[in-house]
Amino acid sequence: MPIVQPPFTDAQWQSIARGLVLSKRQLDILKSLFQGDSEKEISGRLSISQNTVHTHLKRLHSRLGVHSRAELMIAIMVALRNEDDTPLGSRRP
Predict the structure, then answer these.
(1) What integer is the mean pLDDT of 14-39?
(2) pTM recorded for the entire structure
(3) CA angle 46, 48, 49 (to 5 degrees)
(4) In the chain, where are the structural domains located?
(5) For 35-49, what is the mean pLDDT?
(6) Burial class (CB in 10 A: 0-12, 13-18, 19+), 92
(7) pLDDT score of 39 more than 70
(8) What is the 3-state secondary structure (H, E, C) of the chain?
(9) What CATH class does 10-82 carry?
């Protein structure tokens, strides 16, 4: 898959990680997801099983109250662009 410019700055990614209380691995998975990688591609890049990637993504879905990757990505983009200071993990779409 071609490398695309990340949609967020490093500071924004760190804000996401703090707001959702993400581990470095979870943040890496989320970044890869935003680059358009599949679970298989993410697992290969990070040298972890596809099941581990899937589990991390399911936990993020649950934490944000979303049901698809598209909803997950939208929820994160909306949260970062929202002007109030509500922590990301407490938002529900």
Answers:
(1) 89
(2) 0.75
(3) 135
(4) 10-82
(5) 95
(6) exposed
(7) yes
(8) CCCCCCCCCHHHHHHHHHHHCCCHHHHHHHHHHHCCCCHHHHHHHHCCCHHHHHHHHHHHHHHHCCCCHHHHHHHHHHHHHCCCCCCHHHCCC
(9) mainly alpha
